[in-house]
Amino acid sequence: MAKRGRPFTYQREDEKPVTVSLRIPRDLAEQMKRYAVRRRQSITELLLDGLKMRLEQEDPREQSGQSIAYYDNTIIQEYGNTVIQEKASSRRTGRQGTMRESILNLLREHAEGLTAEQIRGLLSPEKPIGDTLQGMRRGSFVRTEGGGREMRYFLAGRGA
To answer: What is the Cα–Cα distance from 102 to 122, expressed in whole angstroms?
Structure first.
């Protein structure tokens, strides 16, 4: 049976684009959408522009005298004689390290355990911590008692 409708845009197999699926933090996705709307471009165009730009530049991690720790506490970039240093807490990457460590440190100080609301109040995070707490629970870093809003988090292996 002959194909009906609009003809294929790509005549050869090697012309067809590849679909890539990507998971990113919600706050970054919102920033991306707002940026694309302001620039009047699609998200695909925005991501392609960013990827092309990154691939055209030298990888800063391979440049001598420069150290960038993407998922660590400190980001250091050197430009000539100027060094710019910023704490990862002001630049969230969506990685678990910083928030997870902060939560574990809090729970070490509070043997009586803390609710998610108390943890949020003490840490004042820039984004929700529910996924981090759930991951810590699945990874057996913390244990819980109770349920709902009254659920308390404890360091794994400690009593209430």
So the answer is: 10
